[in-house]
Design brief:
The protein has about 150 residues and is an alpha/beta fold. The protein has helices at about 10-25, 35-45, 95-105; strands at about 25-30, 50-55, 65, 85, 105-110, 125, 130-135, 140, 145. Helix 1 (about 10-25) packs parallel to helix 2. Mean pLDDT is about 90; it is low at about 1-5.
Length: about 150
Amino acid sequence: MYNYGTMTHKDIETQVASYIAKNYQSAAEIGVGNNITAISYLADLGRDVFCTDIKTRRDYQGVRFVCHDITSDDTALFNGVECLYAIRPGIEMIPALIHQAVSAGADLIIYHLGNEIYQSGGEIINCGVVLHRYVSRGTVLPNRGTK
């Protein structure tokens, strides 16, 4: 098991957001819940971002929020977005996330809880935390490799 040492969940989210900021101009955080650390970081950097969840839970402090069920057939919401990402999503959400990213022609980046992976794990990205890219530009990545 990976030892995060003194890294807190806020540090993890900042690492995820930092990677996304370096690689994408637009992004959507799926399943944001009550934690807006990553999406706020991206918004503060001027990225074109919004966040979604199945229910509204809090004030999103000026970040655009859309109430959306990721398992719905509504794929138009993500058209034009370069990167869909989720932090600690339930493993049961991954097939729907993959479907939405493929439909949008976007990348899909996941930060899993612990050592969870879905199927092959996609492309592994080590940016201070371990990320999994399951979709690249709308194409599912079948092989596990490290970047």
